[in-house]
Structure formats: structure tokens, C-alpha cells
Amino acid sequence: MESGNQTSVLEFLLLGLSQDSEQQPILFGLFLSMFVVTVVGNLLIILAISSDPHLHTPMYFFLSNLSLADICFTSTTIPKMLVNIQTQRKAISYVGCITQMYFFMVFGVMDTFLLTLMAYDRFVAICHPLHYMVIMNPRLCGLLVLVSWFISVSYSLIQSLLMLRLSFCSNWEIPDFYCELAQALTLACSDTLVNYILLYLVTGFLGIVPFSGILCSYTRIVFSILRIPSAHGKYKAFSTCASHLSVVSLFYGTGLGVYLSSESSSWRGMVASVMYTVVTPMLNPFIYSLRNRDIKRALQKLLGRIPCVQ
Prior knowledge:
By secondary structure, this protein is mainly alpha-helical. 73% of the residues lie in helices and 3% in strands. The chain has helices at residues 24-51, 58-75, 78-87, 94-127, 132-135, 138-164, 181-185, 193-226, 231-260, 267-291, 293-303; strands at residues 11-14, 91-93, 173-174. The N and C termini lie far apart (66 Å). 34% of the residues are buried.
């Protein structure tokens, strides 16, 4: 199919999670509930941090940005899937598919950067506590987040523009519930060499470099904690990292599962996609609110129902 005017009428078919019509109402209710919980949970985290002056610190500044990115990340895929289930129509327009891929990449890459910045924040707080406020000053934190947004938007824009130059064959079925870049490229009839080179190079860079930064930060943190003489001091230092470590493990574990699935259409690959795009953003607020006393106290104050935990 030639690019140009014909792309405006091109529609991809998202095969979704199940072809069984009897399962569609169950899937609709399940994913609608998960989407509402994700949005409300992350929104409460943002409101709790913004309303409590004690949480106006670098760590919670990064956390509020992570919650915002998670809301947007989930909103790029789940609403369209819910509409498709409700209307019994699996099609997504060419423009809609490119748009969904663009925002999916923006917020996915942003999550990676924010988790890395949060690891660096914990490294400075534990390994250089006396210089923490000097190093992690508001100007630097704002600049780091701004640069992260710039890289995320730039990479996603380049990939989306490269997709626009491609023409597509007659098979327009995507074996998933959202438009994923690697799967969409397999449907192209034209030369995709440049797309794949950029995909593998940047994906490798954005995967290896941030993960290496997180690994390096926590290696230094562990050595610093081991030098603390008291057991209480070790526990207190480690407890400040526990929530972040849980989120990192969940994010990279599910993300790795998506790309290591032997077949993109396999049930295992589909489950990994759901875990990565839906479950991880939904669980992040619970992980931080249940394991973090400051967040728990701020949420209780925000809701005004439960007495503050002393």
C-alpha cells in the first residue's frame, strides 16, 4: 500500500487479549477497574505530595513526576482497549496507531529516566548525606526532569516520523491490545532498516545505561549501609530504598518479559504486556503508600479520615 492519501483510510486491527465474546464483559470490567485504581491512586500520590510541605524534597518531586507519567502511560492504551471491547470493534486508525505509539514511547522512556533519577537521589542521600541538599538542589532536580522529558519526546518523535514514511502490506493485524512499535514494523512492506537500527540502538541505550546507573547507585548504597555500625541504622537506611527497589524490580522485570517472550502473540507475551502497561503503574501507589510512612501520613491528612500515624 502506498503512503499518502491512502494512509488516512488505513486501519490496523488490534486482536486484543481474547477472541471469546463471552469473556469480553469480564475483561471490560477488570480493566476498567484497574484503570480507575491506577488513575486515582497515582493522582492521590501527586495531591498528597503537593499539599504537604514536608514532602517538597527531591525524592518526592521525582515520585510525583513518576505518578504523572504512570497515569499518562496507562491512559495511552487502556481507554482505547475499553472502547474496542464495548463497541466490539477492534480497528484503530493509522493516525491513531502512530499517535498511540508516540505517547506510549514518551511515557515509557520517561518512567525509565525517573526511576534512574530516584536511584541517584537515594545514592546521594545515603552515601553523601551532609552534601545532599547542596547536590540535589531544586535547580538541578528540575533540570534533570526537563532533560528527561526532552529526550523522551525527541526519541518518540523521531520514531513516529520514521513510521510515517513506511507503506504497509495487506496484513494489518497486531496481535496485542495496543500499537507497539516492533510489532507494527513487521507489517511494513517498505524498507525498515533505519527504523530497526534506531529501535535497537536507542532501546539498548535507554535500557542498559539507566539500568547500569541504578545498579551502580545501589552497589554504592549497599557498601555504605554495611559500614553503618548499628543494626537500627542499617534498617533505617535500607527502608528508604525498599519502595524504589520494589518498583524498579517490577518495572524492569515486566518490561524484560515483554521483549523476551518468544512469540509476541503467545499468551505469555500477552500477560507480560498487561503486567508492564497496566499492573505496574497500578501497583506503584500501593507500594509507596504502604511502605512509606511519610506518604501514608500525607494521604491520611489529605483524606481527613484516619488519624495521623505517629
